[in-house]
Design a protein that fits this description.
rod-shaped; mainly alpha; disordered N terminus; 10 helices
Length: 303
């Protein structure tokens, strides 16, 4: 029984047309679309493979550099000798932060100087992150274009091929005359789907890896800024320990309180008799109420 079924399958496979036959049934426009889609498929597979290897290499180098950075006592004194284009993302952020610190290290004299320096360091880290995120997402736009454009390009070839096939029929056309043209037109849609389906899976996988590495880069940038701030606080503390506490801030000119001697604090101020006499003379004398005033008030209440 199974041998009979296998014989039927082999016979049908032998009678089935090959892809070359379908390609030969296409017109010139269909053949051009098919060759273009085959080229896009090769580009898609090569881009996915290259991007996968690039992201894997960058993530591996990031992990190696992070392990080395844990053994370094001071990040602010680290010296990266390679060019900026050859650095992995973690090395790039460390180099940018170190360069920003070196430009403003002379202003780190107090806590306000630390805040100013850290503002420049964090801005440099943010700019470096923007560049590295573009590096992560580079070439993904090509896969997006192939995913969305491949099926439409194949559909265009199919619609045009079917239009040509129906347009060339006569009044007494049969299915045997129509079938080769339609079959040849459908090969472009098949090639478009063969381009879009692998690109879709590859794009989704690479996009997930990019998001994961972006989150790791953000966490690393936050930890890098915190460590630099702690090192600056330690440098300031050591400087204050060696030179003693900083003097108290002086008041602005014209706003300081007047100096009072101990004698003035204990003894009350003494006024001269002449000033006291003038003050008493300026104040109006107090007038005592008379019985007549009380009577006038009672009449007013009765009214």
């Amino acid at each position: 029984m199974f041998s009979a079924i296998f014989a039927v399958v082999v016979a049908n496979a032998t009678e089935a047309k090959s892809l070359v036959w379908f390609f030969e049934q296409c017109d010139t426009f269909g053949k051009g679309i098919t060759l273009l889609l085959v080229f896009c498929s090769v580009i898609s597979i090569a881009t996915m493979a290259q991007k996968f290897m690039e992201l894997s290499a960058l993530r591996r180098r990031n992990m190696v550099f992070e392990q080395k950075l844990r053994g370094v006592e001071s990040i602010t004194g680290i010296n990266i000798l390679r060019g900026m284009a050859e650095l992995c993302p973690y090395e790039y952020l460390a180099a940018e932060a170190g360069a920003a610190y070196q430009r403003h290290r002379g202003k780190v004299l107090d806590h306000a100087g630390i805040a100013l320096c850290m503002g420049h360091v964090e801005n440099a880290i943010q700019r470096g992150m923007a560049r590295q995120l573009f590096r992560y997402e580079r070439k993904l736009i090509l896969l997006t274009s192939l995913v969305s454009g491949g099926p439409f390009l194949g559909l265009l070839g199919t619609v045009y091929g079917v239009m040509i096939a129906f347009g060339g029929l006569s009044d007494k056309a049969t299915i045997s005359q129509l079938a080769p043209g339609v079959a040849g037109a459908l090969i472009t849609t098949t090639c478009g789907l063969l381009v879009a389906i692998p690109a879709t899976f590859g794009y989704n996988y690479l996009l997930t890896q990019t998001k994961l590495m972006t989150t790791e880069l953000e966490n690393y940038a936050s930890a890098l800024a915190d460590r630099i701030e702690l090192e600056l606080m330690e440098i300031l503390r050591q400087a204050e320990t060696e030179s003693g506490p900083a003097p108290a801030p002086r008041r602005a000119a014209g706003l300081h309180a007047p100096h009072v001697s101990p004698a003035e604090e204990i003894s009350p101020p003494v006024q001269s008799p002449r000033r006291q006499w003038h003050a008493e003379e300026a104040e109006p004398p107090e007038v005592e109420p008379t019985p007549e005033d009380f009577r006038i008030g009672q009449d007013w209440e009765e009214r």
